[in-house]
Amino acid sequence: xxxxxxxxxxxxxxxxxxxxxxxxxxxxxxxxxxxxxxxxxxxxxxxxxxxxxxxxxxxxxxxxxxxxxxxxxxxxxxxxxxxxxxxxxxxxxxxxxxxxxxxxxxxxxxxxxxxxxxxxxxxxxxxxxxxxxxxxxxxxxxxxxxxx
Length: 148
Fold this sequence. Notes:
Strand content: 15-25%
Structural class: alpha/beta
Number of helices: 6
Number of strands: 5
Strand order of the largest sheet: 3-2-1-4-5
Largest sheet: 5 strands, parallel
CATH topology: Rossmann fold
Radius of gyration: 15 Å
Shape: globular
CATH superfamily: HUPs
Helix content: 40-55%
Number of domains: 1
């Protein structure tokens, strides 16, 4: 199997950093395009907006600015060799955005951490599955989940 493009989903956690490192190795090995994606969770966005009394557009703008900074910091930490990486910041439901972008970009592999910043064992994951598990079910391409 040949990989021409690899999409890495990140929430900027150490677990996704380890997944990104694995994806970098694969991208070098196959001379593949590497795409780093962060999804601003729409549910969090709406809750935050109502909590702090800002409209959706203001909250999106603030969270996008924060995500851009975190993306730069993440790349400084996890991409010390400055390997070429395309970056995307999207807004939506994380597993859906990952799946849609993977299909739209026609990637050959999706790489993601086995769990994110929130850790493991949340009751929602027991009943509804993790983001990684939902992505695996949606995509026809291989999905590589890397535990920390």
